[in-house]
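ok, trying the design again with the full structure, not the truncated one.
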């Protein structure tokens, strides 16, 4: 089975950062020794840039690593292509790679149905609404990628997927009434999957710790050598947070919302109630 290039890149970044720390060197000192910019070393260590084989060789030499073969293998595997590497939607490639290896995904969404649970028509309407001038072929590709992402929920060992969904996402008209009815039907059906939990955060909760801050927390096998990661999708771009002190707040929000939200069975009933309202008005806009 081919290694996950996203995971390998992050594993390599973590190892290189750890080795530099153990060697007692700063990023600036490493950059000076290798005649490159500190920004390059920083981007390699934060997995924002792929390390070349030459980069790994030079860094291992500087850190006194006698046998760099494992790290060189990581660098080769990080350069391999998985299906998502061909996507034109560059910003989402790291997220898809992380989703593919996560053992648990917790997501809080404030405005729309999460991408892993969307129907094709709903996904198309969401993307088109966000990017009204998007070319037709690019739109088709992005929808296809979003549909393929969902395969992780149906593989033999799927991640534990826990969704906290603000009630406003059930009200918001994305596409036609029929699209909404079909989307909420699928949402209710997916909530029956053994590894999927969906809880609706009702309006009656009022102001709360999460409020309008949608995010995803991806957890990994402790032996994978990759830190748990929070993913934020913003107008400024995709943001990945993995420092322990950064994750504390997001875990606290998740625990708070799980306690405040409707129970899974009650959430399913609420979803179907909204589905029935849309179904009664099919054909409208």
């Amino acid at each position: 089975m081919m290694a996950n290039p996203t995971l390998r890149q992050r594993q390599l970044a973590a190892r290189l950062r750890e080795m530099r720390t153990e060697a007692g060197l700063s990023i600036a000192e490493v950059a000076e020794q290798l005649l490159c910019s500190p920004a390059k070393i920083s981007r390699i260590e934060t997995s924002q840039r792929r390390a070349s084989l030459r980069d790994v060789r030079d860094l291992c030499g500087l850190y006194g690593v006698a046998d760099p073969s494992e790290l060189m293998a990581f660098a080769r595997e990080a350069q391999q292509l998985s299906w998502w590497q061909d996507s034109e939607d560059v910003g989402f490639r790291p997220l898809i790679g992380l989703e593919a290896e996560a053992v648990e995904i917790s997501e809080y969404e404030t405005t729309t149905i999460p991408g892993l649970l969307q129907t094709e028509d709903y996904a198309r309407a969401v993307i088109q609404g966000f990017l009204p001038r998007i070319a037709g072929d690019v739109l088709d590709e992005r929808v296809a990628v979003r549909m393929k992402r969902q395969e992780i929920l149906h593989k033999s060992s799927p991640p534990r997927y826990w969704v906290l969904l603000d009630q406003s996402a059930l009200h918001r008209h994305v596409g036609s009434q029929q699209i909404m009815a079909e989307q909420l039907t699928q949402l209710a059906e997916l909530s029956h999957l053994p590894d999927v939990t969906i809880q609706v955060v009702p309006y009656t909760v009022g102001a709360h710790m999460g409020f309008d801050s949608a995010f995803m927390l991806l957890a990994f096998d402790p032996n994978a050598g990759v830190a748990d990661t929070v993913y934020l999708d913003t107008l400024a771009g995709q943001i990945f947070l993995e420092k322990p002190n950064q994750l504390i707040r997001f875990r606290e929000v998740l625990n708070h919302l799980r306690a405040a939200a409707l129970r899974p069975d009650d959430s399913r009933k609420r979803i179907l109630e909204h589905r029935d309202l849309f179904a009664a008005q099919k054909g409208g806009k």
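Keeping the full-length input from now on. Residues 111 and 169 are 5 Å apart (CA to CA).
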